[in-house]
Amino acid sequence: MWMSKWIILLSVFLAISAQKIIHFNSSLENTTEGEELHITCSFDNSTSSMYIGRNGSRICTFTHGPPQEKCDTTHVGRRMLYGNRKYYECCIKTTDLGTSLTVIINKTRKEDNGIWVCSANQIRELQLVVKYLPSIKNITTKPNGENITDGSSVQLSCSVDSVPESNITWSVNGKVVDNQRPVIENVTCQDGGRYVAKCIAQNIVGNSAMKEHIVNVYCPPRANPKEMPKTQMIASLEDSVTLTATLMAYPAPNFTWKYLLEDKTEKIISDHRITTESDKLTSSLHIPDIQEYDYGYYIMYATNVLDSTSFKFILKKADDNKLGTGIGIGFIVGLLVMGVIVVIVFLIWKKRGETGVNFKEMFQIQKKPPRRASSADTSSTTRKPSTTQTAAVKFDKIPDATYEGLDSTQPRVDQTYEGLLPNISLKQAYEEQEIYENQVVT
Q1: What residue ranges are annotated as transmembrane (predicted)?
Q2: Looking at the whole model, is its pTM more than 0.85?
Q3: Do 242 and 295 fall within a single domain?
Q4: Which domain holds residue 432?
Protein backbone atom coordinates (compact mmCIF):
# COMPACT_ATOMS: atom_id res chain seq x y z
CA MET A 1 0.00 0.00 0.00
CA TRP A 2 2.68 2.40 0.96
CA MET A 3 4.44 1.73 -2.34
CA SER A 4 1.34 2.73 -4.28
CA LYS A 5 1.04 6.01 -2.35
CA TRP A 6 4.69 6.79 -3.02
CA ILE A 7 4.28 6.22 -6.73
CA ILE A 8 1.26 8.57 -6.84
CA LEU A 9 3.12 11.32 -4.93
CA LEU A 10 6.13 11.04 -7.26
CA SER A 11 3.90 11.33 -10.33
CA VAL A 12 2.27 14.52 -8.99
CA PHE A 13 5.68 15.97 -8.16
CA LEU A 14 7.00 15.27 -11.64
CA ALA A 15 3.88 16.74 -13.19
CA ILE A 16 4.16 19.93 -11.15
CA SER A 17 7.91 20.20 -11.89
CA ALA A 18 7.36 19.66 -15.59
CA GLN A 19 5.06 22.68 -15.76
CA LYS A 20 7.84 24.98 -14.55
CA ILE A 21 10.92 23.80 -16.40
CA ILE A 22 10.36 25.83 -19.63
CA HIS A 23 9.74 29.54 -20.05
CA PHE A 24 10.55 32.62 -22.15
CA ASN A 25 11.99 35.72 -20.57
CA SER A 26 8.66 37.43 -21.30
CA SER A 27 5.40 36.69 -23.01
CA LEU A 28 5.52 39.74 -25.34
CA GLU A 29 8.35 41.39 -27.22
CA ASN A 30 8.18 44.69 -29.19
CA THR A 31 10.73 45.89 -31.70
CA THR A 32 11.03 47.93 -34.89
CA GLU A 33 11.91 46.58 -38.30
CA GLY A 34 15.65 46.51 -38.86
CA GLU A 35 16.65 46.27 -35.21
CA GLU A 36 18.52 43.34 -33.59
CA LEU A 37 16.48 41.11 -31.25
CA HIS A 38 17.32 38.22 -28.85
CA ILE A 39 14.66 35.61 -28.02
CA THR A 40 15.69 33.33 -25.14
CA CYS A 41 14.03 30.17 -23.83
CA SER A 42 15.29 28.69 -20.53
CA PHE A 43 14.97 25.23 -19.04
CA ASP A 44 15.36 24.74 -15.32
CA ASN A 45 16.40 21.11 -15.80
CA SER A 46 18.32 19.35 -18.47
CA THR A 47 16.36 17.72 -21.23
CA SER A 48 17.11 15.47 -24.13
CA SER A 49 16.16 17.96 -26.89
CA MET A 50 14.50 21.33 -27.42
CA TYR A 51 13.89 23.93 -30.16
CA ILE A 52 12.64 27.46 -30.81
CA GLY A 53 10.46 27.98 -33.86
CA ARG A 54 7.86 30.12 -35.62
CA ASN A 55 4.94 29.25 -37.87
CA GLY A 56 5.73 25.54 -37.70
CA SER A 57 9.40 25.95 -38.61
CA ARG A 58 12.23 25.04 -36.25
CA ILE A 59 14.72 27.87 -36.24
CA CYS A 60 17.13 26.83 -33.44
CA THR A 61 17.47 23.24 -32.20
CA PHE A 62 19.47 21.61 -29.37
CA THR A 63 20.16 18.00 -28.43
CA HIS A 64 21.25 17.22 -24.88
CA GLY A 65 24.98 16.99 -24.45
CA PRO A 66 27.86 18.04 -22.22
CA PRO A 67 27.90 21.53 -20.75
CA GLN A 68 28.75 24.12 -23.42
CA GLU A 69 28.32 27.75 -24.36
CA LYS A 70 28.53 28.85 -27.98
CA CYS A 71 26.83 30.92 -30.68
CA ASP A 72 26.85 29.82 -34.30
CA THR A 73 24.64 28.78 -37.16
CA THR A 74 25.21 25.07 -36.73
CA HIS A 75 21.81 24.53 -35.22
CA VAL A 76 19.95 27.01 -37.46
CA GLY A 77 17.45 25.46 -39.81
CA ARG A 78 18.73 25.45 -43.40
CA ARG A 79 15.65 27.26 -44.64
CA MET A 80 16.41 30.20 -42.36
CA LEU A 81 19.62 31.19 -44.20
CA TYR A 82 19.18 34.03 -46.72
CA GLY A 83 21.90 34.00 -49.34
CA ASN A 84 25.38 34.49 -47.91
CA ARG A 85 24.11 36.60 -45.02
CA LYS A 86 23.25 34.96 -41.70
CA TYR A 87 19.81 36.14 -40.79
CA TYR A 88 19.34 34.05 -37.64
CA GLU A 89 21.99 32.95 -35.15
CA CYS A 90 21.60 30.39 -32.35
CA CYS A 91 23.28 30.62 -28.96
CA ILE A 92 23.33 27.63 -26.58
CA LYS A 93 24.34 27.65 -22.96
CA THR A 94 24.16 24.53 -20.82
CA THR A 95 25.08 24.06 -17.15
CA ASP A 96 24.30 21.56 -14.45
CA LEU A 97 21.40 23.78 -13.39
CA GLY A 98 19.74 24.02 -16.75
CA THR A 99 19.89 25.02 -20.39
CA SER A 100 19.09 28.22 -22.30
CA LEU A 101 18.59 28.52 -26.02
CA THR A 102 18.65 31.98 -27.70
CA VAL A 103 17.72 33.03 -31.22
CA ILE A 104 19.51 36.22 -32.39
CA ILE A 105 17.72 38.05 -35.20
CA ASN A 106 20.30 40.32 -36.78
CA LYS A 107 17.73 42.60 -38.47
CA THR A 108 14.09 42.04 -37.71
CA ARG A 109 11.58 42.04 -40.53
CA LYS A 110 7.83 42.31 -40.58
CA GLU A 111 7.72 38.58 -41.41
CA ASP A 112 9.03 37.91 -37.88
CA ASN A 113 5.72 39.10 -36.44
CA GLY A 114 3.60 36.44 -34.83
CA ILE A 115 3.73 33.58 -32.30
CA TRP A 116 7.09 32.06 -31.41
CA VAL A 117 7.22 28.71 -29.56
CA CYS A 118 9.76 27.06 -27.31
CA SER A 119 9.33 23.27 -27.13
CA ALA A 120 10.84 20.58 -25.02
CA ASN A 121 8.56 18.26 -23.09
CA GLN A 122 6.20 21.28 -23.01
CA ILE A 123 5.46 24.21 -25.29
CA ARG A 124 5.55 27.86 -24.33
CA GLU A 125 4.52 30.76 -26.60
CA LEU A 126 5.86 34.28 -27.17
CA GLN A 127 4.03 37.07 -29.04
CA LEU A 128 6.52 39.10 -31.13
CA VAL A 129 5.43 42.50 -32.47
CA VAL A 130 7.66 44.08 -35.12
CA LYS A 131 6.60 47.64 -35.94
CA TYR A 132 7.18 48.72 -39.56
CA LEU A 133 6.38 51.49 -41.99
CA PRO A 134 3.09 51.43 -43.92
CA SER A 135 2.89 50.07 -47.44
CA ILE A 136 -0.18 50.48 -49.61
CA LYS A 137 -1.27 47.23 -51.21
CA ASN A 138 -3.95 48.55 -53.54
CA ILE A 139 -6.74 51.05 -54.07
CA THR A 140 -10.15 49.77 -55.02
CA THR A 141 -13.30 51.46 -56.27
CA LYS A 142 -16.96 50.68 -55.96
CA PRO A 143 -18.34 50.05 -58.55
CA ASN A 144 -15.32 47.90 -59.41
CA GLY A 145 -12.85 48.88 -62.09
CA GLU A 146 -11.09 52.02 -63.18
CA ASN A 147 -13.62 52.95 -65.88
CA ILE A 148 -16.80 54.55 -64.54
CA THR A 149 -19.88 55.72 -66.40
CA ASP A 150 -20.44 59.47 -66.69
CA GLY A 151 -22.74 60.81 -63.95
CA SER A 152 -22.29 57.95 -61.47
CA SER A 153 -20.73 58.01 -57.96
CA VAL A 154 -17.50 56.27 -56.98
CA GLN A 155 -16.36 55.08 -53.54
CA LEU A 156 -12.63 54.73 -52.93
CA SER A 157 -10.93 52.30 -50.55
CA CYS A 158 -7.24 51.98 -49.62
CA SER A 159 -5.67 48.73 -48.32
CA VAL A 160 -2.62 49.43 -46.11
CA ASP A 161 -0.15 47.03 -44.48
CA SER A 162 1.51 48.47 -41.36
CA VAL A 163 2.15 47.87 -37.66
CA PRO A 164 0.78 49.70 -35.82
CA GLU A 165 -2.27 50.72 -37.82
CA SER A 166 -1.86 53.74 -40.07
CA ASN A 167 -3.85 56.92 -40.37
CA ILE A 168 -5.19 57.30 -43.92
CA THR A 169 -5.87 60.57 -45.74
CA TRP A 170 -7.12 61.12 -49.29
CA SER A 171 -6.83 63.74 -51.99
CA VAL A 172 -8.80 63.82 -55.24
CA ASN A 173 -7.41 65.97 -58.05
CA GLY A 174 -5.22 67.76 -55.52
CA LYS A 175 -8.01 68.54 -53.04
CA VAL A 176 -7.76 66.94 -49.58
CA VAL A 177 -10.78 64.79 -48.65
CA ASP A 178 -11.49 64.31 -44.93
CA ASN A 179 -12.79 60.77 -45.08
CA GLN A 180 -11.32 57.28 -44.73
CA ARG A 181 -13.53 56.03 -47.58
CA PRO A 182 -14.30 59.04 -49.79
CA VAL A 183 -17.07 59.09 -52.36
CA ILE A 184 -16.77 61.08 -55.60
CA GLU A 185 -20.27 62.23 -56.44
CA ASN A 186 -21.57 62.65 -60.00
CA VAL A 187 -18.31 62.04 -61.86
CA THR A 188 -17.96 63.78 -65.22
CA CYS A 189 -15.64 63.39 -68.17
CA GLN A 190 -14.81 67.10 -68.14
CA ASP A 191 -11.08 67.83 -67.89
CA GLY A 192 -10.29 64.57 -69.63
CA GLY A 193 -12.53 62.43 -67.47
CA ARG A 194 -9.66 61.48 -65.17
CA TYR A 195 -9.74 61.62 -61.37
CA VAL A 196 -6.38 61.23 -59.64
CA ALA A 197 -7.02 59.79 -56.18
CA LYS A 198 -4.10 59.67 -53.73
CA CYS A 199 -4.10 57.50 -50.63
CA ILE A 200 -1.59 58.62 -47.96
CA ALA A 201 -0.87 56.32 -45.01
CA GLN A 202 1.28 57.18 -41.98
CA ASN A 203 1.98 55.62 -38.57
CA ILE A 204 4.30 56.31 -35.64
CA VAL A 205 7.27 54.47 -37.17
CA GLY A 206 8.22 57.18 -39.65
CA ASN A 207 7.70 58.25 -43.24
CA SER A 208 4.34 57.98 -44.94
CA ALA A 209 3.40 55.90 -47.98
CA MET A 210 1.47 57.28 -50.97
CA LYS A 211 -0.18 55.66 -53.95
CA GLU A 212 -2.18 57.10 -56.84
CA HIS A 213 -5.22 55.67 -58.53
CA ILE A 214 -6.74 56.92 -61.78
CA VAL A 215 -10.50 56.85 -62.24
CA ASN A 216 -11.45 57.17 -65.91
CA VAL A 217 -14.98 58.34 -66.66
CA TYR A 218 -16.44 56.94 -69.86
CA CYS A 219 -18.36 59.47 -71.94
CA PRO A 220 -19.13 60.09 -75.61
CA PRO A 221 -17.45 63.01 -77.46
CA ARG A 222 -19.03 66.42 -76.90
CA ALA A 223 -18.05 70.09 -76.74
CA ASN A 224 -15.94 71.22 -73.81
CA PRO A 225 -17.77 74.18 -72.22
CA LYS A 226 -14.44 75.63 -71.10
CA GLU A 227 -13.06 75.68 -74.67
CA MET A 228 -15.89 76.15 -77.13
CA PRO A 229 -14.63 76.00 -80.73
CA LYS A 230 -14.64 79.10 -82.93
CA THR A 231 -16.69 77.86 -85.88
CA GLN A 232 -16.51 80.99 -88.10
CA MET A 233 -13.20 82.33 -89.44
CA ILE A 234 -12.57 85.30 -91.76
CA ALA A 235 -9.36 85.57 -93.79
CA SER A 236 -8.00 87.21 -96.94
CA LEU A 237 -6.51 85.52 -99.96
CA GLU A 238 -2.99 84.15 -99.44
CA ASP A 239 -3.41 84.34 -95.64
CA SER A 240 -3.34 81.23 -93.44
CA VAL A 241 -5.93 80.00 -90.94
CA THR A 242 -6.30 77.16 -88.42
CA LEU A 243 -9.63 75.58 -87.43
CA THR A 244 -9.46 73.98 -83.96
CA ALA A 245 -11.82 72.02 -81.69
CA THR A 246 -11.27 70.68 -78.15
CA LEU A 247 -13.71 68.08 -76.84
CA MET A 248 -14.65 66.09 -73.76
CA ALA A 249 -14.51 62.33 -74.27
CA TYR A 250 -13.18 59.06 -72.89
CA PRO A 251 -11.66 57.07 -74.40
CA ALA A 252 -9.95 59.64 -76.61
CA PRO A 253 -11.78 59.90 -79.96
CA ASN A 254 -10.58 59.58 -83.53
CA PHE A 255 -10.90 62.75 -85.65
CA THR A 256 -11.83 63.13 -89.34
CA TRP A 257 -12.01 66.38 -91.38
CA LYS A 258 -14.00 66.80 -94.62
CA TYR A 259 -15.26 69.45 -97.02
CA LEU A 260 -18.98 70.20 -96.65
CA LEU A 261 -20.29 71.16 -100.08
CA GLU A 262 -23.24 73.44 -100.87
CA ASP A 263 -25.46 70.48 -101.67
CA LYS A 264 -24.75 69.09 -98.13
CA THR A 265 -22.59 66.29 -99.49
CA GLU A 266 -19.15 65.67 -98.01
CA LYS A 267 -15.79 65.33 -99.69
CA ILE A 268 -12.49 63.98 -98.43
CA ILE A 269 -9.81 66.68 -98.12
CA SER A 270 -7.06 65.66 -100.54
CA ASP A 271 -5.27 69.00 -100.99
CA HIS A 272 -1.64 68.44 -99.96
CA ARG A 273 -1.43 72.04 -98.66
CA ILE A 274 -4.00 71.39 -95.95
CA THR A 275 -2.78 69.46 -92.90
CA THR A 276 -4.50 68.06 -89.80
CA GLU A 277 -3.08 67.45 -86.33
CA SER A 278 -4.76 65.67 -83.40
CA ASP A 279 -3.64 65.22 -79.79
CA LYS A 280 -5.95 63.24 -77.49
CA LEU A 281 -8.92 65.64 -77.15
CA THR A 282 -7.89 68.41 -79.59
CA SER A 283 -7.83 68.42 -83.39
CA SER A 284 -6.78 71.18 -85.83
CA LEU A 285 -7.05 71.80 -89.59
CA HIS A 286 -4.41 74.19 -91.01
CA ILE A 287 -4.94 75.96 -94.35
CA PRO A 288 -1.91 77.95 -95.59
CA ASP A 289 -1.83 80.36 -98.56
CA ILE A 290 -5.63 80.56 -98.84
CA GLN A 291 -7.04 80.30 -102.37
CA GLU A 292 -10.47 81.25 -103.66
CA TYR A 293 -11.67 77.64 -103.63
CA ASP A 294 -10.71 77.23 -99.94
CA TYR A 295 -13.62 79.37 -98.79
CA GLY A 296 -16.69 77.48 -97.62
CA TYR A 297 -17.74 74.90 -95.04
CA TYR A 298 -15.72 72.21 -93.29
CA ILE A 299 -16.95 69.47 -90.96
CA MET A 300 -15.05 67.56 -88.26
CA TYR A 301 -16.14 64.18 -86.86
CA ALA A 302 -15.04 62.85 -83.43
CA THR A 303 -15.77 59.18 -82.68
CA ASN A 304 -15.05 56.83 -79.77
CA VAL A 305 -16.49 53.48 -78.64
CA LEU A 306 -19.56 55.15 -77.12
CA ASP A 307 -20.74 57.57 -79.80
CA SER A 308 -19.83 60.14 -82.44
CA THR A 309 -20.31 63.90 -82.81
CA SER A 310 -19.51 66.55 -85.42
CA PHE A 311 -18.70 70.26 -85.62
CA LYS A 312 -19.27 72.49 -88.65
CA PHE A 313 -16.87 75.34 -89.52
CA ILE A 314 -17.10 78.10 -92.12
CA LEU A 315 -14.24 80.03 -93.70
CA LYS A 316 -15.31 83.42 -95.15
CA LYS A 317 -13.44 85.83 -97.38
CA ALA A 318 -12.42 89.11 -95.80
CA ASP A 319 -13.86 92.33 -97.35
CA ASP A 320 -10.76 94.34 -98.35
CA ASN A 321 -12.88 97.48 -99.05
CA LYS A 322 -13.66 97.64 -95.36
CA LEU A 323 -9.96 97.95 -94.75
CA GLY A 324 -9.74 100.99 -97.09
CA THR A 325 -12.79 102.53 -95.48
CA GLY A 326 -11.20 102.10 -92.09
CA ILE A 327 -8.02 103.80 -93.26
CA GLY A 328 -10.05 106.74 -94.68
CA ILE A 329 -11.97 107.14 -91.43
CA GLY A 330 -8.71 107.08 -89.52
CA PHE A 331 -7.26 109.79 -91.80
CA ILE A 332 -10.29 112.06 -91.27
CA VAL A 333 -10.18 111.58 -87.54
CA GLY A 334 -6.48 112.46 -87.61
CA LEU A 335 -7.20 115.71 -89.47
CA LEU A 336 -9.89 116.67 -86.98
CA VAL A 337 -7.53 116.09 -84.11
CA MET A 338 -4.85 118.21 -85.77
CA GLY A 339 -7.38 121.02 -86.33
CA VAL A 340 -8.38 121.01 -82.69
CA ILE A 341 -4.72 121.19 -81.68
CA VAL A 342 -4.12 124.20 -84.02
CA VAL A 343 -7.13 126.06 -82.57
CA ILE A 344 -5.96 125.44 -79.02
CA VAL A 345 -2.43 126.67 -79.85
CA PHE A 346 -3.84 129.81 -81.52
CA LEU A 347 -6.04 130.67 -78.52
CA ILE A 348 -3.10 130.20 -76.16
CA TRP A 349 -0.87 132.42 -78.40
CA LYS A 350 -3.52 135.11 -78.62
CA LYS A 351 -4.05 135.15 -74.88
CA ARG A 352 -0.34 135.53 -74.29
CA GLY A 353 -0.07 138.30 -76.95
CA GLU A 354 -2.44 140.61 -75.06
CA THR A 355 -0.05 140.92 -72.15
CA GLY A 356 3.17 140.56 -74.10
CA VAL A 357 5.52 143.14 -75.67
CA ASN A 358 4.40 145.19 -78.68
CA PHE A 359 7.71 145.15 -80.49
CA LYS A 360 6.52 147.56 -83.16
CA GLU A 361 5.93 150.35 -80.64
CA MET A 362 9.22 149.63 -78.91
CA PHE A 363 11.17 150.02 -82.16
CA GLN A 364 9.32 153.27 -83.06
CA ILE A 365 10.28 155.07 -79.85
CA GLN A 366 13.95 154.51 -80.54
CA LYS A 367 13.89 157.10 -83.39
CA LYS A 368 15.69 160.30 -82.28
CA PRO A 369 13.55 163.50 -82.35
CA PRO A 370 14.61 166.17 -85.01
CA ARG A 371 16.46 169.39 -83.96
CA ARG A 372 14.54 172.72 -83.77
CA ALA A 373 14.94 175.26 -86.62
CA SER A 374 16.89 178.52 -86.03
CA SER A 375 15.10 181.83 -85.38
CA ALA A 376 15.96 183.05 -88.86
CA ASP A 377 14.35 180.16 -90.48
CA THR A 378 11.19 180.42 -88.41
CA SER A 379 10.42 183.86 -89.88
CA SER A 380 9.82 182.36 -93.30
CA THR A 381 6.16 182.15 -94.32
CA THR A 382 6.65 179.12 -96.48
CA ARG A 383 6.75 175.59 -95.10
CA LYS A 384 9.89 173.72 -96.10
CA PRO A 385 12.01 171.09 -94.63
CA SER A 386 14.54 172.10 -92.05
CA THR A 387 18.14 171.88 -93.19
CA THR A 388 19.82 173.32 -90.10
CA GLN A 389 20.62 171.75 -86.77
CA THR A 390 17.91 172.49 -84.21
CA ALA A 391 18.35 172.54 -80.47
CA ALA A 392 17.33 169.37 -78.70
CA VAL A 393 14.40 169.41 -76.37
CA LYS A 394 15.27 168.19 -72.94
CA PHE A 395 13.54 164.93 -72.07
CA ASP A 396 13.62 162.96 -68.97
CA LYS A 397 15.95 160.05 -69.48
CA ILE A 398 14.15 157.11 -71.06
CA PRO A 399 15.79 153.79 -70.66
CA ASP A 400 16.68 151.95 -73.85
CA ALA A 401 13.87 149.70 -74.97
CA THR A 402 16.30 146.95 -75.72
CA TYR A 403 16.99 144.06 -73.35
CA GLU A 404 20.49 145.43 -72.70
CA GLY A 405 18.90 148.53 -71.22
CA LEU A 406 17.06 146.67 -68.58
CA ASP A 407 18.57 147.06 -65.15
CA SER A 408 18.06 143.71 -63.46
CA THR A 409 19.22 145.11 -60.14
CA GLN A 410 16.20 147.44 -59.85
CA PRO A 411 12.89 146.13 -58.61
CA ARG A 412 10.24 145.62 -61.25
CA VAL A 413 7.42 148.15 -61.24
CA ASP A 414 5.02 146.19 -63.37
CA GLN A 415 4.78 142.66 -64.71
CA THR A 416 4.38 144.03 -68.30
CA TYR A 417 7.05 145.50 -70.51
CA GLU A 418 5.36 148.92 -70.33
CA GLY A 419 6.12 148.97 -66.65
CA LEU A 420 9.82 149.20 -67.51
CA LEU A 421 9.33 152.91 -68.61
CA PRO A 422 8.83 154.69 -65.30
CA ASN A 423 8.53 158.34 -66.46
CA ILE A 424 6.74 158.26 -69.79
CA SER A 425 4.42 155.99 -71.60
CA LEU A 426 5.10 154.68 -75.06
CA LYS A 427 2.09 156.52 -76.47
CA GLN A 428 3.15 159.87 -75.00
CA ALA A 429 6.70 159.52 -76.33
CA TYR A 430 5.41 158.76 -79.78
CA GLU A 431 3.03 161.79 -79.84
CA GLU A 432 5.74 164.20 -78.74
CA GLN A 433 8.04 162.88 -81.40
CA GLU A 434 5.38 163.49 -84.05
CA ILE A 435 4.82 167.08 -82.88
CA TYR A 436 8.45 168.03 -83.39
CA GLU A 437 8.61 166.45 -86.77
CA ASN A 438 5.64 168.53 -88.00
CA GLN A 439 6.73 171.97 -86.68
CA VAL A 440 6.76 174.82 -89.24
CA VAL A 441 10.02 176.67 -89.72
CA THR A 442 9.51 180.46 -89.64
Answers
A1: 327-349
A2: no
A3: yes
A4: 359-437
